[in-house]
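Chapter review: from sequence to fold.
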Amino acid sequence: MSLLSNLTTSWSSPMVLVDDEVWQAREGSCYLSTDETPSTDDGIVLEQGQALFFSAGMAVHYRSKGLQNAILARVKV
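The token string follows.
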């Protein structure tokens, strides 16, 4: 498992997944997107405790939902 912290309100660079993964909001809220170039209002909201499954080969962008601290956990399946 790896943790992503210090999320900003700007979209991250894409992270291309090598393995199937589950991403979970461990703290705060965030947006996740698999769009090539997500716009400001794109993405799926993850609230603390919620998770999403992503298949290997997908490119995932992430960002904080607001100014609060957010932490994402990535777990290989």
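Two observations follow directly from the output. The domain at 2-76 is CATH 2.60.120.10 (Jelly Rolls). The longest strand covers residues 21-27.
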